[in-house]
Design a protein that fits this description.
Blueprint (H helix, E strand, L loop, with lengths): L2 H4 L5 E3 L6 H15 L5 H14 L3 E3 L2 E2 L2 E4 L6 E11 L9 E10 L3 H15 L2 H9 L3 H9 L1
Parallel strand pairs: 1-5, 3-6, 4-6
Antiparallel strand pairs: 2-3, 5-6
C-alpha cells in the first residue's frame, strides 16, 4: 500500500515542544479523529495504549511506529508526528523518539498490517530522509518529504 493511501497532509504534524509519550499518543489520536469523525478519539488512543502495553513501538534511531487495531475501520489510516524535542519512548535502543508514524488498521487484517509496518519501517530506515524530516518545521513540507 502506498504511503499516500494511508497518510494525508491533515494527519501530518510538526508538534509543539514538551510532549511526553502519552501526550504524543493523544495528539496522534486527536489528529486521526478530526479526519475520521466516525472514530472517537478515546478509541484511537486506547488502541495505541493497548499496543504499547505489549511492548514499546520505538524501533530505534529516534523513530516509533505506534499502531492500533480497530473494529470500526475498513482501511488503514496513518498519522505522522514530528516532535520538536525527542521524547522518552522506551525504544529498543534506549534513545528518545522524535519521529512517530502511527498506523490504525482493521482488527482482522493482520497480513496487510504487518506488510504496511514493514514498508514504513523500510522507508524510515533511510537516514537522509529522516535527517531531512527532522529539519522541517512545516506540516506540508514534512508530508511531501515522506510521500515523494
Amino acid at each position: 500500500m502506498e504511503i499516500t493511501q494511508l497518510l494525508t497532509p491533515e494527519r501530518t504534524h510538526c508538534a509543539a515542544p514538551g510532549l511526553s509519550k502519552k501526550r504524543a499518543l493523544e495528539m496522534i489520536s486527536d489528529l486521526a479523529a478530526r479526519q475520521c469523525p466516525d472514530l472517537p478519539q478515546h478509541e484511537l488512543f486506547e488502541s495505541l495504549l493497548a499496543r504499547e502495553k505489549v511492548g514499546s513501538t520505538g524501533i530505534g534511531n529516534g523513530i516509533a511506529l505506534p499502531h492500533g487495531r480497530l473494529e470500526r475501520i475498513t482501511t488503514p489510516i496513518a498519522v505522522l508526528l514530528k516532535t520538536e524535542e525527542p521524547i522518552p519512548f522506551d525504544a529498543i535502543d534506549g534513545k528518545p523518539v522524535d519521529l512517530l508514524f502511527a498506523l490504525f488498521v482493521p482488527e482482522q487484517d493482520h497480513q496487510a498490517h504487518l506488510s504496511t509496518l514493514r514498508t514504513v519501517a523500510a522507508l524510515l530506515s533511510q537516514k537522509e530522509l529522516c535527517r531531512a524530516m527532522r529539519k522541517t518545521c512545516n506540516d506540508r513540507e514534512l508530508y511531501e518529504l515522506l510521500t515523494q
